[in-house]
Design goal:
Rossmann fold, 2 domains, 15 helices
Length: about 350
């Protein structure tokens, strides 16, 4: 019997329906990115046939995708007599097309699509306690992971490093400073470091061969390859890191590591006198609470579908998960013989830590 009362069950049902809508629309954004449809629209308004010709897709799919994007409010429609064209609003171009814009969140669609590709494997992993290797999430997920962090890295990371006490002067000294970018992924952090500190020599390390290959290409395209060496190596292995380094950077990766303490120990041993390890990781609450805010919910979402399964694919594993709280980072540092300071830097999503051998 309908009493007209909106119950808690109704509210949850409404929420899941809204979430379904959001997921489907993210998949449509993924299609637009993967097929170059937004780039085609950036040249000017298109009819379905025009988009089909420009992007090399079937006209029937072009029409359906354009109508869906317009219905979702991502495109504008321009109607003249019986002709309907679709246009990408200029205000939306940074979100969808400009990879270093602070508004560029379109790579989230790649992350969701990458997770969808392995989602059927997660139930078995949950039952067995095993994991799903990072590489199995595929190039789409890797592209999304690099792309979603790229704006923060390009715009905020250099300033954070310059604000670390004593580090800015060290990285701009006449003697060529040495920097290690550990777990560099597609190398956007390496490129940002090379641009921000033009006298520095950089070593980028990652355990994923595909990421290392892309990082090399990105360094070359950015014109910094002469100062960058990209290494396929497990930085947690003794002797894998070179050095001595003035700075060792670990951006949005500590929570992913199966062996975080051995890696921090290796980083400690690779520091030069007075060098510092800077860790950038998730800004979550210091203690669990429920219900949580949107940022923490987002981090748990990544954790249950990607970060924890990928970490558990390597054994033994610390199994940290995405929700790596500040006290846990400090404890990891101390276990590696490092002192840790939580710096008054960062943004709504990331927290910055300075780790040093001399502070402990």
């Amino acid at each position: 019997m309908d009493t007209g009362t909106h119950t808690a069950a109704d509210a949850l049902a409404d929420r899941l329906l809204t979430d379904t809508l959001g997921a489907l629309e993210l998949f449509s954004v993924f299609l637009g990115r993967e097929l170059g449809l937004y780039e085609a629209l950036a040249a000017g308004p298109c009819t379905p046939d025009g988009l089909a010709r420009t992007a090399g897709i079937a006209p029937r799919y072009a029409r359906e995708w354009l109508e869906q994007q317009a219905a979702a409010g991502l495109l504008e429609t321009i109607t003249s007599k019986d002709l309907r064209r679709y246009a990408l609003p200029a205000a939306y171009r940074p979100v969808l097309l400009e990879p270093e814009s602070p508004a560029h969140v379109a790579p989230l669609a790649d992350l969701i699509a990458g997770i969808a590709g392995v989602l059927p494997r997660l139930p078995d992993a949950y039952r067995s306690g095993a994991g799903v290797p990072y590489r199995d999430y595929g190039p789409i997920f890797r592209r999304g992971q690099g792309g979603i962090n790229r704006p923060m890295i390009a715009h905020e990371l250099p300033g954070w490093l310059a604000a670390v006490p004593g580090l800015g002067a060290r990285l701009t000294a006449p003697a060529s400073p040495r920097i290690a970018d550990v777990a560099c992924g597609e190398g956007w952090s390496t490129v940002a470091l090379a641009r921000a500190f033009p006298g520095a020599l950089l070593d980028a390390y990652d355990i994923d061969p595909d990421s290392v290959g892309v990082a090399r290409s990105n360094a070359a395209a950015a014109g910094v390859a002469s100062r960058v060496e990209c290494h396929l190596a497990d930085a947690a292995e003794k002797g894998a890191l070179g050095g001595p380094y003035d700075l060792i950077l670990i951006v949005e990766a500590l929570h992913d590591l199966a062996r975080p303490v051995p890696l921090l120990e290796a980083a400690r041993d690779a520091l030069g006198p007075g060098g510092v390890i800077v860790v950038v990781d998730e800004r979550v609450a210091d203690r669990f609470r429920a219900p949580a805010g949107e940022v923490e919910r987002l981090m748990y979402g990544w954790s249950v579908t990607h970060c924890l399964p990928a970490a558990l694919a390597e054994q033994p594993s610390a199994g940290l998960g995405t929700v790596l709280r500040a006290p846990a980072v400090v404890a990891l540092a101390e276990a590696a013989g490092l002192g840790a300071e939580v710096l008054p830097l960062g943004n709504d999503f990331f927290r910055v830590y300075a780790l040093s051998a001399s502070a402990g």
